[in-house]
Amino acid sequence: MNAMGSGKWRKSLTSGFLHVFLLVYALICLYPVYFSLISSFKKNDDIFASPFALPTSFNWQNYVTALELGNIFRYFWNTLLLAGGTVVLSALVGAFAAYALARFRFRFQGVTLIYFVSGLMIPIQAVIVPLAYIFGQVKWNDNYLVLILLFTAFMIPMTVFILTGFAKSIPDELEEAAVIDGCGHWRTFWHVIFPLMIPAIATASTFNFINTWNNLIFPLIFIKKKELSTISVGLLSFFGERTSDYGAVTAATVITLLPPILIYVLLQEKVEKGLTAGAVKG
Amino acid sequence: MAGYRRNKLVILMFLAPAFLIVTFFEMIPVGSTIYFSFHNWPGIATAPLKYVGLQNYANIFQNDDFLRSLKNVLWYVFWSVIGQVGLGFTLALMIYHVRRGTRFYKASFFLPLILPATSIALIWYFILFPTDMGVVNHLLDSLGLGTLKRAWLVNPNTAMAWIIIITTWSSIGYYTTIGLAALAGLPDEVMEAAEIDGAVGLRRIWSVVIPMIWESIRISVVLVITGVLKIFDLIFILTDGGPNGTTHVPATLMYKEAFEYNNYGGGSAIATVIFLLSIVLSVLSLRVMGSGKREA
């Protein structure tokens, strides 16, 4: 009885200690976002004079500067367009491929899936030099359609991986019923398979959106016209121009953080699932 | 129905778009990078490629900057494996143990993962600001540790350490999530049986839990290795390889060679080395960590 009691006491002491540790680490994870948020409302001199203090008043001037001088709104819109296009195209061609890979029988089926998924192993660095060469030759720089295709190529591996696994779990009966009703492949796909795949498409799309939104190197190399830049490149050049305008730079930074954070807040589980798909079973 | 599922034309039509996009924008370029690494091209659209054999490889392996970047990246990988997998799984075990607040902890640890590397780099740049003003130096001052203040990112002794810390900070949640998923798959009976056998606390973790989640630890190590070898933006923005090349890794050097010095052949050779290195290190680490479950 006594031993049990002291064991319990020890257990809750351990738990308390672990909670303190976890809480401190959680704060370290959140702090940089918090820091940029409070700094973005401060006057420039206050940011580093008292970095831990809350802003004394809500000063929107930094945001005005970022949007007007930094052109951040333009870059925000550009990136939204690119990421949106990539999400839609990846979902579409990914769902097509997953349908073929999961619901049909053909030779080289396994090899085809491996071909798609092996794209996950390829670092972006391994493709940019020849692409820079080709894009220069055929004048494909500054072309959003090409850039969306390029992003999509890098999103397809994970999209196909997620969607194929999911499409395999769709019961045959649903598809067969549609066929008996006289639906062809095309209509069966749109009326039965695609609607059922929506949850998996949402998971893959969070991954695709966040990765496209966050990408720096593709627009850095393949977009030459400043007005076509994405938000990461725009933020970087704004920082380059106004290095010591800390308030405006942190305001611009906060704006770049908004879409990923918003998606994470709304779709926490899908985001976690999408990003860890392949590493976590189920 | 059997014929319905074997219609070759339909299969082809549904596979074609994804296949073509991946082939043209991913697979052919990877092959071309290897091809480029045997050629010289000055980065001018009209200039032809010139075959130079192994010259680009000979050049980079005689280049001190490249050799140093290799050394840097190996340390980078080593500490990242320790930090991300080691600490990430430790945090997962802690969350698993306390059982309360799981959602909050998981969400907080995961948050840095979804943020753009560019923004993360700028925020940390301000936190480590290379003068007296930065947050870290401020904190040291207020703790009475003013003598420890450094210009963290321009000091050759501390710059790489901070790159490793920030990388670990930004990716740890990934491995905590993988760890938690693995732990959630453990059958309760095993944990209870182990407790009855007297394997409690750290001993239980070491001799029962770790062997049972060994497979996800192996996968995680491979993911860290391939992930770290790709990292470019963080270093590009925080230090651009400086001070004195102490934070250059092949990925940043590759960008410099190709897109700043217009040495596309050399850049391709470095890119090929990165690709090979990530395969070799992955295979090697899988070998070292044994196959499947470790012996309990």
Structure in a nutshell:
The complex is a heterodimer of chains A (282) and B (296). By secondary structure, chain A is an all-alpha fold. Helices cover 77% and strands 0% of the residues of chain A.
Describe the structure.
Chain A is an all-alpha fold and 282 residues long. Chain A has two domains: 38 residues; 208 residues, MetI-like fold, CATH 1.10.3720.10. Chain A is built from 13 helices and no strands. In chain A, helix 9 crosses helix 13 and helix 11 packs antiparallel against helix 12. The model of chain A has no long low-confidence stretch (mean pLDDT 91). Chain B has one domain: MetI-like fold (Orthogonal Bundle). Helix content of chain B is 69%, strand content 1%. Chain B contains 13 helices and two strands; from the N terminus they run H-E-E-H-H-H-H-H-H-H-H-H-H-H-H. Chain B has a two-stranded antiparallel sheet with strand order 1-2. Chain B is globular and about 75 Å long. At the A-B interface, helix 1, helix 2, helix 4, helix 5 and helix 6 of A face helix 1, helix 3, helix 4, helix 5 and helix 7 of B.
